[in-house]
Description:
The protein is mainly α. The chain has one domain (14-134). The protein contains three helices and two strands; from the N terminus they run ααββα. A two-stranded antiparallel sheet has the order 1-2. A hairpin with an 8-residue loop joins strand 1 and strand 2. Helix 1 crosses helix 2. The termini are far apart.
Amino acid sequence: MRPSPLARRWLDARHLVAGLSLVVIALALLAYWAWQASVRRHQVAIELLRSHAELAAQRLGARMQNELYLSATAAFRPALAAARSSGTGAFDPSTLLAAARAAEACNCVPPLRPAYALRTDLTTAGTMFAGPAAPSDAERESLLAALRDAYKIIEHVVAVAGFIINVCV
């Protein structure tokens, strides 16, 4: 007995649906894999940009450090030489301002352009300011308080480092 033409069409339709279902599943898998690849590519691009930004920040920091070192050396070297040659060994802040302005005038280093300079022993009486924009008395006290706090932190770090060196030796 032969299958009827209606049953035959039904079998052909089921095969067609099954085949189309497999094609749809394959396309869905391909689309999912393409989406995953796109997400991974995006993450790699973000990481690459972050890495590039970190490298640029490191280079900028190194350049700023170099320029600050050169500027400070150009200002402090003549000021310290003047302090040594004076015989007292006392550092005059106005000498530092003059040296900073001379370095700025020669245009050989990045200029510091300090508003004022100071010499201090962390007491109000032992602090000497020089410059046209010297701070007021209240600002001087807050500046000295900040310097005292920073000095205490440095003393603590030096004490800890000394302890570590003594323990390791």
